[in-house]
């Protein structure tokens, strides 16, 4: 038995040593931003840290717990000189981090008072392949929208730097959430991208649809009353918020009709049930002819 056990145990110990060494590297919190509905953004710097879009890291805060590591998706772009995560306060550990960063106090916090943070990573995800396609569908459900903050930021930096050499030409973005209040920081990012694309006369580069899946009668009535206004009353975006769930068969057929003969990347960060639906639609809407349209499905479940 020991011959079968010693190899995996050796590899496990090596992995633990690497994680311990990474956790000892110095991480500096450069900025803490408090967003609405108890969401905080931590901007950090670490020597030698390199990331790609959509990756995630493990974070430990010894001031809260000396043993707990928690995964968080990176919401910054590789082009930025820092890396960031968004933390929604929903439990004991996140509440402890919120208090340790001084977010429960009204006065300005000095940088030296911020807690020590250990970071392990980054680790790769399917989202890294976004730039391998000319056309992509990005689908985020609830908190699954966070990887696409990094993707959309990076797309914008690449677009501004050298749009002619950017292979990616069209993004269809879908955001499904029960309510947008918990992720107002992401709506702010979309507003910024929308304004910048219009300034460059390329508003068609990014098409996005926001679906509110948890709505009631009063919200629907409010939606109908304000539907004719220039900007959406919920997100402040020109694109109006939709209620219910998308008809994926119609969405896939519409996109296939607009991009004949293309390889279209479909990227999901969301629950397994939605992954099954999108995978089936990707298969059924791909043509048998190699020269026809093909949907390539990539997923990241939580």
From TrEMBL:
It is found in: Cell membrane. One of its GO terms (biological process) is superoxide anion generation. The keyword Cytoplasm does not apply. It is a multi-pass membrane protein. The keyword Iron applies. InterPro entries: Cyt_b245_heavy_chain, FAD-bd_8, FAD-bd_FR_type, Fe_red_NAD-bd_6, FNR_nucleotide-bd, RBOH/FRE, Riboflavin_synthase-like_b-brl. Residues 19-129 form the FAD-binding FR-type domain. Gene3D superfamilies: Nucleotide-binding domain of ferredoxin-NADP reductase (FNR) module, Translation factors. Its cofactor is FAD. Catalytic subunit of the phagocyte NADPH oxidase complex that mediates the transfer of electrons from cytosolic NADPH to O2 to produce the superoxide anion (O2(-)). In the activated complex, electrons are first transferred from NADPH to flavin adenine dinucleotide (FAD) and subsequently transferred via two heme molecules to molecular oxygen, producing superoxide through an outer-sphere reaction. This is NADPH oxidase 2. It comes from Geococcyx californianus (Greater roadrunner). The gene is Cybb.
């Amino acid at each position: 038995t020991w011959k079968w056990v010693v190899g995996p145990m050796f590899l496990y110990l090596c992995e633990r040593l690497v994680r311990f060494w990474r956790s000892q590297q110095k991480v500096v919190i450069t900025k803490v931003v408090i967003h609405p509905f108890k969401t905080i953004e931590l901007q950090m710097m670490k020597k030698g840290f390199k990331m790609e879009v959509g990756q995630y890291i493990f974070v430990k805060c010894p001031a809260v717990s000396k043993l707990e590591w928690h995964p968080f998706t990176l919401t910054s772009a590789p082009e930025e000189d820092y890396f960031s995560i968004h933390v929604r306060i929903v439990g004991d550990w996140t509440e402890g981090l919120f208090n340790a960063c001084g977010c429960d106090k009204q006065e300005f916090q000095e940088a030296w008072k911020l807690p020590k943070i250990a970071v392990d990573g980054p680790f790769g995800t399917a989202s890294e392949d976004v730039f391998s396609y000319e056309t992509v569908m990005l689908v985020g459900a609830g908190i699954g929208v966070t990887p696409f903050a990094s993707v959309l930021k990076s797309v914008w930096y690449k677009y501004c730097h050298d749009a002619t050499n950017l292979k990616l030409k069209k993004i269809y973005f879908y955001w499904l959430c029960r309510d947008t209040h918990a992720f107002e920081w992401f709506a702010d990012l979309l507003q910024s991208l929308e304004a910048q694309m219009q300034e460059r006369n390329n508003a068609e580069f990014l098409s996005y649809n926001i679906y509110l899946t948890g709505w009631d009668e009063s919200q629907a009535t409010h939606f109908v009353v304000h539907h004719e206004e220039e900007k959406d009353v919920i997100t402040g975006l020109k694109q109006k918020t939709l209620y219910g769930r998308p008809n994926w068969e119609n969405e896939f057929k519409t996109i296939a009709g607009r991009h004949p003969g293309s390889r279209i990347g479909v990227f999901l960060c969301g629950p397994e049930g939605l992954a099954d639906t999108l995978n089936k639609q990707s298969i059924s809407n791909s043509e048998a002819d190699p020269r026809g349209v093909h949907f390539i499905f990539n997923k990241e479940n939580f």
